[in-house]
Amino acid sequence: MMVFPTLKGRYPWTKIVCSDLNRAIFSSERIVAKIFDSDRKMTLALKEGGIISEAPTLQPNTSFPLDVTVSEGSVLDLGRGVRMKFLEIPGHSPDCLAAFLEEEGLLFCSDGAGFYTPPDFFRPNYWYRLEEAEKSLDKMRAIDPEILCRGHYGAMIGKDLARKHLQMNRQSIEDFKAFVLEKINRGWSVEEITKDVTVRFSRGFLEFFPAEENYRLWKLLVQRTLEHFGIEMEER
């Protein structure tokens, strides 16, 4: 994410489009600094894992360049008759957006359709709110795109494959909900569940996440699941 200020500096004519909520979020120096730190840790982890050969030297930013804000139903004219419609798909985050090229049936779903690791592993990623993630998935499934462009691991071409991916993400949510409830009913603590899922489900690209970041995200997922069911637990 923090590559955008660098790209903007190199190609100043480009326009960065974001949601209305993004403008408030990226006005915070504290939040921008945390995102930079997280991106830097990930880059170094990828270098140590041999996935990339070098880590670029970027200077921390205190602000984030945003040019155009959009919200549910906004349409952006890209020129030459190409019009992109935006949809709000919260769940992964409160400000998550999807973009739809209706004529081509092409849906850019960003991180709204779970974190996919080939060939068939999905991790739910409703860091914001589980029920919102489910509603957002239903919205994308109703569109029934011809092409689903994921935030990670490319494009799923053809209605059958796009439908499969959206359904697999929905199933991963149901499976995780059932998993957490089963552990809670057996008397497990949040920490015990988090340790278990961090080891059990950190597959593929997730193995390159810094350990403390991986643990933090899995713990947040467990907590959001418990909130969804109205379960309050003391940490121990």
Please describe the structure with a list of short key phrases separated by commas or semicolons:
alpha+beta, 2 domains, six-stranded mixed sheet, 44% helix
Describe the structure.
The chain is of the alpha+beta class. It has two domains: 1-70, no CATH class; 71-228, 4-Layer Sandwich (Metallo-beta-lactamase, Chain A), CATH 3.60.15. It is built from seven helices and ten strands. The mean pLDDT is 88.
Instruction: Give the % helix.
Output: 40-55%
DSSP strand count = 10
The second-level CATH architecture of the largest domain is: 4-Layer Sandwich
Q: What is the number of domains?
A: 2
Q: So what's the overall shape? A: globular
Terminal residue distance: 34 Å
Average pLDDT value? 88
CATH class of the largest domain: Alpha Beta
Q: Tell me the strand order in the biggest sheet.
A: 3-4-5-6-9-10
- Annotation field: number of helices: 7
Low-confidence stretches: none
List the secondary-structure elements in sequence, H or E.
Answer: HEHHEEEEEEEHEEHHH
**Helical/strand content category:** alpha+beta
CATH superfamily of the largest domain: Ribonuclease Z/Hydroxyacylglutathione hydrolase-like
**Could you tell me the radius of gyration in angstroms?**
19 Å
How does the major sheet shape up? Answer: 6 strands, mixed
CATH fold descriptor of the largest domain:
Metallo-beta-lactamase, Chain A
Q: DSSP strand (E) fraction?
A: 15-25%
